[in-house]
Amino acid sequence: MGLIIFIVVIVVAVVLLKGFDSVAGRGPKQVKDGINQSRLSLKEVNRQPCPECAELILPAAKKCPFCRSEIKRL
Ligand SMILES: [Zn+2]
Asked: Residue ranges of the domains in the chain?
């Protein structure tokens, strides 16, 4: 009886591993999307408000893309 239970456990484990393989096939893409989202949010965080219109713009911007005013950095 113990051997039969052991075999059943192995079969279930193999089926679960195959299921995990299919999930792992999609895993890296989801992880990559998550990294892209984190990069996007990081980019958003790095943006600074325009002194003229207060829209968030890149710190390196010399002209605001929203109000087209020149950004003067100290
Ligand atoms: Zn502006």
From this structure: 2-47
Residue 37 CA, ligand 1 centroid: distance in Å: 25
Closest C-alpha to 56, from 37, 67, 36: 67
Residue 19 burial by CB count (10 A; 0-12/13-18/19+): exposed, middle or buried? exposed
Amino acid found at 47: R
For 10-33, how does the pLDDT look when each residue is reduced to its tens digit (9 = 90+)?
A: 676 766 777 766 655 665 666 667
CA of 45 to the centre of ligand 1 (A): 17
Record the tokens describing residue 64, joined without a space.
């605001």
Could you tell me the pTM of the whole model?
0.40
Quote the pLDDT of residue 74.
63
Residue 51: both structure tokens together: 């002194």
